[in-house]
Structures are given as structure tokens and as C-alpha cells.
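WARN no homologs supplied; continuing
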Amino acid sequence: MTGFIIKGLLRDRSRSLFPFLTVAIGVALAVFGDAYLRGAQDSIFDTTARFISGHLLVTTRARAKEGPSAGNELALTDISIIKEELKKTYPDITWLERVRFGGLLDVPDSSGSTKLQVPISGLAVDLADTSPEPNLLRLKRSLVQGHLPEKPKEIILSEELARRLGIKLGDRVTLISVTMNGAMAISDFYLAGLVRFGATALDRGMMICEIADIRQVLDMADAASEIVGFFSSLVYDDRRAVQLAKGFNARIKDEGDFAPMMQPLRDASGFGSLIDIIFSATGLILTIFIVAMAVVLWNAGLMNSLRRYGEIGIRMAMGEPKHRIYLSLLIEAFFVGLVGSIAGTLIGLGFGYYLQRHGLNIGEMMKNATMVIDDVIRARIAPQSFIIGFLPGLIATFLGSAISGLGIFRRQTAELTKELSE
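OK structure emitted
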């Protein structure tokens, strides 16, 4: 019976072509959409974690309330003690000290007078060869000229910022900022290298320097703006991050403004609602996909039943049981759904793989962006991508045929003679 049904589908394309195309296109869109959302999620979360908040961020309660605009007067003190405790409590997480600062970068002319001043956003990290920071910030990969800071008071700037300032490697610039105690801080630095991060928000005006240098300039001995933590896999786990932050904050009895507080990436970056939307988007897309395809295939089944009205009547007149006819329709749906789902999955994976390898440059759209996100969006194919559209394709095909096929049981054998005579 199964072989007979397959031959019928192959020989009569009107029974199989439209449902096949519907399933294939729907599954392809679902698979590609899932891969695209995963890639976009990785682009946002990974870049934000590396440059902004880590997977976990420890700072003072007051600084956490103020957000990214907070100054270093709210920084963590006794940083060595806090970091040692974090390492002991969470040994599988990499903890790193960072100092964030803002200010003006002054470019002198040949006589030493100010030629140009621009506001900058600064990040001070441990740039030693043994530190994971250069790798986390992708500094070597992003370096387009020069080298990473090797001597005291050397810095690297984004290539775009250096071009706006009209400076070259080795030139002296002056940082004008504010110390941890509120006093004015002025110090000279020398340009060692230029970087291009590929994220417009960073390339617009980023300065990176050695944390020991900036601590000296800003009077921040044994202090830091924050301590960031990274999971060993370097992949953000939202559920685990939220649990660790709750556990840490519950153990801190001090409710003062300068007590340490841990935040997961979702809270530290302000991406909480975005994370929830992204995590639920796949399920929503699949639900809409299944319902829409079921409706389309239901209508296709109804039209097919009308076209095959006489065929079904003859089969009933020959004594074939209604449940057997109904079963044959479901078997047809199974094979159409199976082939359509396989084809759609392969098509979706093909488009997803292309976008994963080559990416989509959205730099022109990100010129005024404040969100830290790579200018090149890439898809990511995960193991779930192979089944995320395949199973719904089968389900929708079955559902549509099962609903439309119920009309068989409403056919009355007593009316067949009249129907056939017409």
C-alpha cells in the first residue's frame, strides 16, 4: 500500500507539488531564521561581554545604580581582597580588573599649545603577555598599525579617532580627566598602535591603556571601576549568570553604597528585555510557522479532497473502509512532509552557512549606533538547527491533512450512487 501511495504522489504532481513547496519554503525560513537569530544574539552578547560587562560584573551598589555614566568616585576599593574572594568562591570563572574613565584627549601643536580636543571613552586593562585581556578584547586581531603598549604611558586608539585627531604613531597626546577623589588629572601618553574593532560604537572614540598607568594618573591604587567575570567557555549562560549573581548578593550583608554587587550581563548592559525577546523569538516563530502551514495545508487538503471527491467515492463504493482511506491520506502527508522538511532544512542550512561564513555588513546602518555590536552580522548553525524546522514541518503537514481528511467520515455510502451518476 505504501509503495502504491508513493507512486501515486510521484505520478500526480497536483497532489504533492503544492504541499511539498509549502513545507519546503516554510521549513527553510524557520531554519534560516533560527540560525540568523543565533548569530545576531552572539554578535550582541559576545561583543558586549568582552568590552562592556563581561558575563558577570562586580562593582559598587552606587555605581550599579548610576550605570555606565558613573564616575570613578564610586569605584571599588580593596580590590585585591574582593578579587581573591571571587577566585576562591568561583574558581571556574576568569576574573579581571578594569578601570573605565572618560575625559578629553588634547592634541598639541608644534609649539605645545592645544590644537584639538575631543571627548574619549577610555578602558584600562592588564595588557601583560600573561593576561587574557588582549585575547578577550581581540586587540592583536584588530591591530591595523603599530603594536600593543609595551612601555609606560603608551596607548592604543581606534583608527577612526586617530584620523579625526590627525595624529600618527609615536605622537604625544594629553589626557585630561578626573581622579577618584575628584581632582583634575592631566597626563601625557604616546600613541603605540591603532585598532579597528569592527563595531561602530567602539571605533568612534576608544582609548585603551595599561591599567597600572591609569591607576597612577587617577589615584586609584588598589581600586578599580569593576571586576568582570567570564565563563570558561566564553559563551554567555543567562540562567547560570542570574543564579550566581543572586547567590553573591545574598551573601553580602553590607547594604552601603560602596558594598560590592554582582550583576549578570542582562542587568549590567541593560539588555534584559532584549535577551528575553531573543530567547522567546525562536519559539514564537516556530509556533506561527506551524499554525500558518497547518492552515495552508488544511486548505490545500480541502481543495485536494474536492478534486478527488469522485476518487474517494469510488474507493468507498468498492468497499474500502473509511479509516483505511483516511490512513492513506495521512501516509501521503507523511511522505510529502518528510521530503519537504528534508529539502527545506537543506536549503535553510545552505543560506545559514553562507551568512555564517561571509556575514552581512550593516556598518552603514550603525553610524550613529550606541549599542556595542559588530558591524558584520553572521548566522550560527547549531545542532538544533537540523531539527528545529524538520519536526514542525512534519507536524504541520500531518495536522493539515488530519483536519481536512475528517470530511471522509461525513460521506454517506447511501448517497454514493447518486453522486457517481452525476
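The CA atoms of residues 81 and 222 lie 9 Å apart.
OK
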